[in-house]
Design brief:
This protein has 162 residues and is mainly alpha-helical. The chain folds into 2 domains: 97 residues; 45 residues. The chain contains 4 helices and no strands. Helix 1 packs across helix 3.
Length: 162
Amino acid sequence: MATGKGRARTVAEPNKQFHGLSRLFGNVANKTSHAAGRASTFMLAAGVIVVWGITGPLFRFSDTWQLIINTGTTIVTFLMVFLIQNSQNRDSAAIQVKLDELIRVSTAQNSFVGIEHLTDEELEEIRTKCEQRAQADEGGEDFLQRTGDKAQKAAERAVAAE
């Protein structure tokens, strides 16, 4: 594969232009998602709707008047779907990396790293097994608690007998 500079680009070499565009889109998506969640943005949108509603009689509730709000809201909704999804994908990926690292450095089973790539059925099977183990552990904890209580009472009796 050749590049514009006369040298061959290897498959492993990233496309810097695409990477830069991806980074730009990520930054715009992140800032837009944060801005869209602010109260001031909601108030601005509500204000636009109120102004549009008030101008209805002025434009005799014409088709053009209705088309303006329909087109505007459709465009904003369409764009926001992609921006918010991008932000959620990145947040989800970051959380997954953090969880994987916690699993890796803890006593949890390292076999759980990467399970997000399994099918729904495989994940359900693992979830069911984990719930069964958790219930078994709860039974074990109850047993340990009862044993500990018995040991405490026995120790108190032994101290009282002395």
